[in-house]
Amino acid sequence: MNGEALTSPARNADFGDDALPPLIYAYGMSLRKLRILRAFVAPIQVSYLRGITSLPSKSILLVWGSKNLTARGDVSVVRVEDGFIRSIGLGADLIWPISWVFDQRGMYYDARQESDLEHLLQNTQFDGDLLYRARQLRKKIVAHGLSKYNLSAANWNRPPSIEKVVLVVGQVESDASIQCGSANIKTNLDLLKAVRLANPKAYIVYKSHPDVVAGLRASDQHREQLNHYYDEGIEHVSIQSVLDNVDAVYVITSLTGFEALIRHIPVFCYGHPFYAGWGLTSDLAPPIPRRSRVLTLDELVAASLILYPRYMSLSSRKPLSVEQALDELITLRNQQLPTPWWRKLLRTVLQQFGKNR
Question: What does the alpha-carbon distance between residue 82 and residue 71 come to, in Å, rounded to a whole number?
């Protein structure tokens, strides 16, 4: 496969189908993810494998995330993950995604090696039309309060008469995004300690990861100690309302940092998320020499939301542009349909499973 086949500017619309064979292979995915995958790459056929030793020469093999595997040198491995604007609801709740990314070089959250996204950010020459599109996209995201999961929640208000309010964003500590994207700080407790040390007089707001709040992933290993280092813990509140009321955001690698940048909020990174190292964040981890370029916010948005992901309609299962995907999510969110009984039951089952994840 051509090295650029999965990174062309148009691939969110056509996925470079002219460069792909009629049959590709998938390994190590659940049956549910396999179903979603087939929808994303249609009309290309996907064959599911239980082992990879018998792959034909020059095959394309799709795997989920940063799953470890050793493939022959003549096999092209493409890693698949959720996009940055995903759904109305949590992925851990088995809500279908409107965007996935397909990365041939690595994975955007694995800072140990270059990913397709990092390659785009480091090398793309962004023209005026693309940057205008990115700017309009960014304005639309802010105007409609869009985020990765677009959860319905109450608003949060800034405490009165507080000079400085900072948000610390918790993550699922077992996630590969921390294990592969941070060299030093790998727990929410260590993150809070570092932020309190750097901001002894600030009002620190701590927001747990929504998967943890929902009981779909394991709680922090030092959860009982966290409240010693923040002033207020918030859970069932709108991330948009929080970002509207803080002076800075501190993360390890959380996507909330990217969402804060889009809203022109200062972001401090203790790890190496995909949006760090380009002159837009205050980086508190050792630099990555590969990331040697200074980018504008619109260049970051263009690569991350236009060039990198693929979007698919949740209703028609047809390819979408990112603008069409935003419109569909806005429509779905505004409908505010009641949660069906079967999804409530499924949440209960997933919560039991999530305690061990």
Answer: 23
